[in-house]
Amino acid sequence: MNLVIVESPAKAKTINKYLGSDYQVLASYGHIRDLPSKDGSVQPDDDFAMSWEVDPKASKRISEIAEAAKKSDRIILATDPDREGEAISWHVLDVLNKKKALKDKDVQRVTFNAITKSAVLDAMAQPRELDMELVEAYLARRALDYLVGFTLSPVLWRKLPGARSAGRVQSVALRIVVDRELEIERFRPQEYWSIEADLIADSPPFTARLVKHAGKRVQRLDIKDEATASAARAAIDAGAFTIRSIEKKPVKRSPAPPFTTSTLQQEAARKLGFTAQRTMQAAQKLYEGVDDQGGLITYMRTDGVYVTPEGIAQAREVIGDRYGPAYVPAEPRYFKAKAKNAQEAHEAIRPTNIARHPDSVRLESDLGRLYELIWKRMVASQMEQARLDRTTVEIETPDGQTGLRATGQVVAFDGFLAVYEEGRDDRPKGAAAPEGEDDDDATRLPTLKEGAAAKVQAIRTDQHFTEPPARFSEATLVKKLEELGIGRPSTYASILTTLRDRGYVRMDKNRFIPEDNGRLVTAFLTEFFAQWVEYDFTADLEGRLDQVSEGDLDWKVLLRDFWSQLKPATATVLERQGVIDQLDDAIGPFLFPEKPDGADPRLCPACGTGRLHLKASFKMKSSFIGCSNYPECRYTRGFGAGAEEQEAGGDRELGLDPQTGLPIALKIGRFGPYVETAAATEGDKPRRSSLPKGWSPATLTLEQAVRLLGLPRLVGAHPEDGKSITAGLGRYGPFILHDGTYANVADIDEVFDIGLNRAVTLLAEKRAGKFAGRGAATAPLKDLGGHPDDGQPIHVMAGRFGPYVKWGKINATLPKGTAPEELTLEAALPLLAAKAAAALKAKKAPAKKAPAKTAAKKAPARKATTKAKST
Fold first, then answer.
1. For residue 634, what are the contacts with CB-CB under 8 A and spacing of at least 6?
2. Which of 299, 327, 420, 504 is catalytic?
């Protein structure tokens, strides 16, 4: 018997079909162990010895793999064909050795770039040994990330209250976002005017723009004020124009290469609106396969653009059959990666069978849209160039003092554009077009003759202002990381997720905006650990890790060099005094922006004599803005409260409570803005409520404050026990409460008007999924698609008594031993049918027959468990 070990149960099932009864395929479910999240897991003083800990969830699976290994003649490690996959195989092998499950066993390593029968069988025929150079590159990367996290983070906690953590790549990605925000803040709009004229020259009207005025060339930003624009307009109005030249220039455009991990994430963000994490989750499913036909795409973690000759040949055949011979270039097209530090070891992402058109594959929404994107990109990459005719018409006055230009573009042959055109990153309004590209290139021009007189019909002068560079979207941030050589394809999704989870950034209209604590952390690291957040330093470190994977650098040498610099740097900062004062100077322009009237932005609005500074409260683990006249002046506000709060003047009266007649005030405290009303009777505490996220202190109204101070409010009595349900605002956001159970409410506005039925539903969902963690809402564990009878969605859910499959009002418990993530639509349908039949029978049958019905229902579960054990 041959034992094959892979990561994914879905992959295991497919591969088992290809290999037959002589093979047993088991899944490790990804990494089986990791470095414990505690100090000492990597020991620099012991030559970087690493202490690994088996994931408790993996213990049972490892025991099953070990038992199967003892009974097998050969063990084949068939994890993914990259550094992580090699590391998983190494971990499995190391654990099996420690369990003494490999005595005299033949252990082999195989890799395949696609889960198809031919790819798997070819790989099995060409086994190799474990690539220890890839493993050592993984070990070095893991140790580096651990050392940075567990060395810099404690420094942050001790010197910067409220900071969460620092990471080797995460902190650099955060700096990129913060640096862009600084660019935006430093940006000063520049006024400019555009001038266009509608002309006729024995032809239909066409549009031209001013390119020469008073004999001088006019660039986009040259006309800076209305007076100049009016003078140019007058010159056009008074001029007699002739078409001086017509230049027609053929232009060719070539297709983009097939997808790498980063370009797939970028295009999926631009065209599908997917996050990087959502893209990779869908790509993983496409790679593993969703039906009996095996994997639909090649391996999805790659920065290579190479395609096998077989793949190219298949693409060319599909192009010829579907689009015609004219769309097939004379020679195949080969690509070379342009990304910094790109590795060409893996094939680009492409369909495993290019003849499988997206219309012929039945997939759930995300998978279908992503597969179509991958298919189109691959096919387009091997298609003929697009041929365009670009026309430039120069129109001038006889004296040459005033000149206009009209440009247009016609597609002579669409070529690859018939299938796919690469998306473009957003260009800010007012920014210049890329070199060689005009904004009106797509305009069609009428037939014109050189020397013909051109008559002006209308003139338009428009005022514009240049705009700052755009904030990063997921697509543009991934592109920037790739250009700088920071991170690797498999890390981009987790980097962006970590920035959001740490609260260092927020998303607004799909753009990254640094939060105040993110800016503070970046300022701290830039000020005291500049080397470790430098772009070139991080990219160089990635290059050295690649040297380790290629066998050109010893991984322990890399770690020693790195640690010899990081350790003394952290010791120096820990001993440093006045860190907060230094940061106060470094980010002063952000904390205290210049005021339009030229007043001192640091002047305390409360006492009028003190100056505001960044302060730290280690007791409360937070940073805030306070007055230099403390304790005489106790004015404080939250860190980074921003211009809105400063303009609002700090504390202010909002009006009188309509019910009590007591005054209500907005106040800015150490932990942010809040509203307060005076106590109704002497000795009582004043009522207070923090402002919920998204509410602006500057625009807060009396009505909003009254509603906030009215929380918590009674929603009603629960129909089951008569106990009260209340709605309120807490530390973790808006909630409803019943008998000790809290359920989160998605929106603060819902707290004020949520009804009893909605509240009961939220509480029921929370109780059903309470093991998922505080505030967790019940979400499907897996989406199986629509039911063939009515199209209603079928979901695998987590229940109080175990996982179950849900279709409308029918809930069927999964048989014992069935992993929720392994359940397929085909396996779920019989369970639902049996449950529906049982429910129908229960309506008709007498109550005394219920026990027999229950026993009959349980029988399939025992049978399914036995079957699962036998495979």
1. 606, 627
2. 299
Distance CA 502, CA 163 (A): 9
**Residue 416 resides in a domain:** yes
592 neighbors 611 (Cβ within 8 angstroms): no
663 and 768 in a single domain? The answer is no
Is there a single domain that holds both residue 560 and residue 475? Answer: yes
Scanning the structure block, which residue is given the tokens 């929720």? 820
299 is catalytic: yes
pLDDT of residue 427: 47
pLDDT tens readout for residues 102-112: 888 899 999 98
Using the structure block, give the residue that is written with the tokens 């290059």.
543
Maximum CA pair distance of the chain?
Answer: 107
pTM of the model: 0.68
Tally the C-alpha atoms within 13 A of residue 142's C-alpha that lie toward its C-beta: 24
E strand spans, 578-629: 612-617, 622-627
Peptide bond into 712 cis (omega under 30): yes
- Same domain, residue pair 432 and 549: no
Element (H, E) at 132: helix 132-159
Q: Of all helices (H) and strands (E), which one includes residue 437? A: none
Q: For the chain, how many residues are written?
A: 871
742: its two tokens:
């809290």
Considering its fold, how many domains does the chain have in total?
7
Buried residues in 54-91 as b, exposed as e (16+ CB within 10 A): eeeebeebbeebbebbeebebbbbbbbbbbbbbbbbbb
Contact 835, 853 (CB under 8 A): no
Alpha-carbon gap, residue 710 to 699, rounded angstroms = 19
What residue numbers bound the domain in which 210 lies?
A: 191-254+387-465
Q: Residue 40: how many CB atoms within 10 A of its CB?
A: 11
How is residue 474 written in tokens?
Answer: 């997921």
Q: Encoding tokens for residue 150?
A: 């567990």
Tokens of 759: 């509240």
CATH classification of the domain holding 406: 2.70.20.10
Q: What are the per-10-residue average pLDDT scores of the chain (871 residues)? A: 88 86 90 86 93 87 92 92 90 92 90 88 92 93 90 81 78 93 89 95 94 94 94 94 94 93 91 90 88 82 88 95 95 79 70 92 90 96 94 94 93 92 59 42 79 95 92 90 83 86 85 87 87 87 89 94 91 84 82 82 87 76 79 72 44 81 80 79 81 74 88 90 90 86 83 87 76 46 75 76 80 78 80 82 54 38 34 29
Strands 206-213 and 216-217: antiparallel
